[in-house]
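Sequence in, structure out. Go.
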Amino acid sequence: MAKAATTTIVTKPAPMRKLLPITSISLLVLAASCTVQEPAPFGVLPTKAQVEWQKNEYTMFVHFGPNTFTGMEWGSGTESAEVFNPSSLDCRQWVEVAEQAGMKGIIITAKHHDGFCLWPSKYSTHTVAQTTWRGGKGNPLREFVEACRGRVAAGVYISPWDRNHPTYGTPQYNEVFVNTLKEVHQNYGPFFEQWFDGACGEGPNGRKQEYDWPLFNNTIAQLNPNAVIFSDVGPGCRWVGNERGYADETNWSPITIANGARSTDKAPCGMQNGAEWIPAEVDVSIRPGWFWHANEHPKSVEELMEIYFNSVGRNGLLLLNVPPDARGLIPAEDSLRLVEFRAERDRIFAHDLAQYAKVRAAHLRGKRYSAHQLLDTAYHTYWASNGDGTDTIYLDFDQSVKFDLLMLQEYIPLGQRVAHFKVEVHDLVNEDPQSCWIPWCEGTTIGYKRLLRGKLVETEHLRIIIDSALAAPILNRVALYNTTR
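Output:
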């Protein structure tokens, strides 16, 4: 690109001024830096536990129980406990697979809809204690928690629906279920996440239960205050609205749950001015089913990457189910696929081209919040605009770069703000600096992380125009990648 002509400006010499001592200058600089206004939080905010949960990005779901041996997805609750008989159960192998896959946590289905408990519960007669496996002395939940300790975070799924318990469908069941929660969290916790399925008596002649959600949630909050509680609508994190692995392109973490309603109408996209911070969790299985079936096989790396871009890349957390087989082990083909999936992510995100850029923004709040912070990988440093909800970030390169993937991150401890933005690149051919910006992509929400893919372009200049935000934008990361490298 041709260089713009330079203009020499001649000015009269300024009159001599008395120089201030070095100490005075230092004090003035310090005073000026102290006048920079710290950005105020906006709207509803995440808890520290929710921030750490979101930073996990990618965790493992483990569906394991009688269905593993019967071939069912939803057990009837009338199956004999004796069907549960893993030949080589090793929860340490699950943890090793999760670590190799780059996962930060694992959630186990300690009790699915059939009511079978993977621990010897005092509140059920449908548990591992009623099996001949290990002489009725086995305890998969205990083995799981011990295997996770010090390596990955442990989470627990306990289904409120119980197709086995005789009190299900009566007010007494809520007390039974609360006692079950206490038993698990007191004896096996703490857990990073408590997973509540929303199923309730589906199927012909299924008994319905009026779940006492406030009682359930308060019980967990008292016993395990740092656990993020999942259900259709939280209160810790919410269902994304499908099991395909895709979040909505517009995905607000705030949402309003009117009068404790369990409706999921707004779950896929959240609400721009929601009253509670309840981010989306994206649950999907690596295989067609949730439990292991001998005739099923894992998704391809390409399918998993699409899921990643449309879950983690759309302000969600990816919860990928990897079911152990009848041995109690994750099959080799699933383990290999997870390693291949990690290798592909490592390849794509290995080289951040934005690190070669000079970064500036249209509105300046002060050095502490300068646009240069966008290249800093430390989570708690960030760029903060002093604008009114609009701003433009410029990335300028000494040499042209090629990219087809952009990553943006808002600093969510201070709230979610951006409602719409667009990205433009500078045309290397057009020499007019005022009319050579070409649209590359646009988006609505950002949240914890947004990944945007577009055509492969080569440019020396890029600008991110935030044209709609609920408050002054605050971002803590901008990155560029070339997925074709």
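Check: The two ends are 25 Å apart (CA to CA). The first helix runs from residue 22 to 34.
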